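Annex B, item 7. Sequence and structure tokens for protein A, then protein B.
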Amino acid sequence: MRASHIFLVLFLVVPVVEIYLLIQVGSLIGALPTILLILATAIIGAGLLRQQGLSTLARFQNNLASGSLPAQEMIEGILLAVGGALLMTPGFVTDAMGFFCLIPFTRKALAHYIMKRSAVQVQAGVADFARSARPGSHGAKGGGVDNNTYEGEFVRKEDERLNRD
């Protein structure tokens, strides 16, 4: 999916769906209970964000102290920030997506999926680079690497402007 499609969904479709759901829930349970429900999800989300954020930070620091790369924790930290922002946005769809980012099981699964996808893309990029760096190769896009070696001599000259004492 292209970035323009993602932004179209984020800025046009999601707000329309949120407004529709708010109106529907408001007509079923009333305006005040709907507002209180939205505030309750924001408060619960803030507490969950704090707890999960501290837990992820502790795992991050433990991995650093043991000398291993805390990649999983870094991605989880980003997901926690996104989840917190979604929970602070009024609406039921954004609250569901926010809780999805904050609940440990789903957050870890999503982080693992992101790491797996990015590893595949990195490996593909490395393979493309390796193909284009081969002698006599012109790469996938026809650019290629110039593998010619040129010999030459040079003479180091002192800069006279620096020696004016």
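Protein B:
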Amino acid sequence: MKFGLTIFPTDYTINPIILAQEAEARGFESIFLPEHTHIPINRETPFPGGGDLPKEYSHTFDPFVTLGAIAASTKNIKLATGIALIVERDPIILAKEISTLDIISNGRVLLGVGGGWNREEMRNHGTLPERRWKLMRERIEAMKNLWTQDIAEYHGEFVNFNPLWQWPKPLQKPHPPIIVGGNGANTLKRVIRYGDEWMPIGNRGEYLNRIPELQELALESGRNTIPISVFGASSDEKSIIELANAGVDRAILRLRSKEKEQILPVLDQYTSLIETFSN
């Protein structure tokens, strides 16, 4: 079992560079950063976690700028988004940002992707919520072309560009792993169509019983077994054993958006899981 961490890095929490260095020193495999470009004040979309929207959602840092700083300050820990809101980003610019990050980090990027839940937020980016899934697919397909082809082009309903040159190409080949987040009805189809891994959310709905379905779909499509990460996994040993027995490859443990003095003791508690379950 691999162990990752996720946190909303903000202007009032532990410095994410220090967090990543401390996590790397303790043997954590990866750090996953979420994304919200902003939070609209007038919002009708309910928070999927229930209750009021936590403060950190409107304070979180840009994930790619932050991961770039972490890349320059660490050697081994993998740099992940959990998740990047592809429907709120230009694919040509994002493809270059990811390639650049993959090179300067010596091939440590994991690209967690999703369509998002905050409809007012995506509308402010010109995205129609009801069309976001096709938009996400086209943008990911377009980025794959940019990463793998010397002369790239893409022609879709939402993404359309004629032949062009773009370098650098990612260090990882053919590109950094694309980890499709979510537990929705059509998520597994999205994993098969354009993803490399699946990342269900640990506290939202049943997902363990969908793992056999995913692997069966992979077999039918001629693919190998698809790795699975659980985002926001429980940190008790019984739950970790259950994940391992179900075929989960990575447990991503949550950290609250707190200061260094409150975070480091939690890291130390989590480290015992690495010692117990890491291969």
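Comment on protein B: The mean pLDDT is 96.
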